[in-house]
Amino acid sequence: MMDDIAFFFLNAFLFCTCSASPPNFVLLFADDLGFGDLGCYGHPSSLTPNLDRLAAGGLRFTDFYCTSPVCSPSRASLLTGRYQTRSGIYPGVLYPGSRGGLPLNETTIAEVLRPVGYATAAIGKWHLGVGANGMFLPTRQGFDQYLGIPYSHDMHTHYPQYAGQGAAGRTLRGPFGDALFEFDNTIGNLITALEKTGVTNNTLVIFTSDNGPELMRLSRGGNAGLLKCGKGTTYEGGMREPAIAFWPGTIRPGVTHEMASTLDILPTIASLAGAKLPQVMLDGVDMTEILVNQGKSKRETMVFYPTDPTEKYGLFALRLGKYKAHFYTRGATHSGTTPDQDCPVFAILKAHDPPLIFDLEADPSEHYPLPLTGKPDLQALLERIKKVKEQFEASMVFGESQISKGTDPNLEPCCNPQCSPKPGCCKC
What we know:
By secondary structure, this protein is α/β, with parallel strands linked by helices. The protein is built from ten helices and 13 strands. The strands form two sheets. Strands 1, 2, 3, 4, 5, 6, 7, 8 and 9 form a nine-stranded mixed β-sheet that branches.
């Protein structure tokens, strides 16, 4: 089933140790899965029994964020614990002919774990570059093994279409629901394998998604639930993701409203494995206290960059505690077709001074900006937000853009390598 699901939207990063005490890690990264897509997150007709089982037996997050509303930069942040602006994975995403990729001087989770004896594997979509002679592939980034595709399958269709005999026509949700059920079955197979090998109680499984749903695909593009907009935007629907942590005997079943991010996975895994952190500016924090004790998060702030970040505009939005401030808003092609006029590409860039501020606990849908006039407490909050923004942007050094390095047709995967002219002749 794994080769089938790799062409849907699952990434699996496997980190295993031969030692008896440090835990194994299985990191499952969905593609374009929305906050409202899973049964355990409230969708009335999704069939996701295995993910629902992980959520019931583990810790379900309500306030978990990716770092970008599109794939490549989000994946870079997951693996490095650093915002994509530092590593240069911007603007947009890498393509089959892209010359650039995740810089080799960036330290991935796999490279953090290798010195302490872990065997590592990446399975599924990579989307962080190939480069000349495969220089950017996972096996050059610390992973011992790699089985998957280097780019999104819409460089065949990105939104879900595949469902095998055990899933096709089985759900009430149509093609998307069937593909999601196929996806869930694969996760069930992985968990069964852990149980059969007797390592479940020594394995931390983390599940989340790279960005929000591609709403332009209508009912076949996913669902952000009560959150605003989706993929391509810095509204909550584009960047707040479902997330589950499962570790029987260590993580108690429950729900946490503490803020966390894909950025936090690297420092957390390093802490649990007894590995050294890379000597670079990390944006992630250790969330072991949340996982093990359902305690408080070390993260108070989350920043939101658009798909095309620049030093000129800086942050589009910033979350501080339960409040989120939008300094700029803009729609996206990926979030077209929704009734909300703020979501499609026709919603052009707007600057907000003062920023729009939302209380995400009272208003997670970002419908009602707080009135600042005549509110001293909110004016004080605004000043604090501005100060946090200023301090963060002062710490940000933009890395050289890897995506702006251009493309070379000869780098594209080709089923007929000797053909000409490329890339047209590569289609089989």
